[in-house]
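User: Some background: our group keeps a shared notebook of sequences we're curious about, and every so often someone picks one and asks for a predicted structure to add to the entry. Today it's my turn. The entry only has the sequence so far, pasted here. Could you supply the structure so I can complete it?
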Amino acid sequence: MKPRVHPLIARARARKPAPVTRIPVGRPRLPDLLTPDEVAEQLRVGRRRVYDLCRDGHLAAVKLGSKEWRIPVVALAAYIERHTQEAAS
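Assistant: Of course. Here's the predicted structure to add to the notebook entry:
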């Protein structure tokens, strides 16, 4: 003897599932990051000066772990732009 199935359950099983619409999502592009040595070379200052700028909040940076620092390219560009405008006025 076959067990009885409730009519609502039987109807739900008979229905085809709705097609799944997948929205293509690309991986977000991470910002290009520079080392303090690379930034020091661009600004023509010492590496210690770059660390000081980051620590004082003048240059945005990301600290990885306890010792590694990385500076986004856009942060360096913004810093240069800010100081170019200050020097012009």
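Suggested note for the entry: The mean pLDDT is 83. The beta strands are 33-34, 62-64, 68-72.
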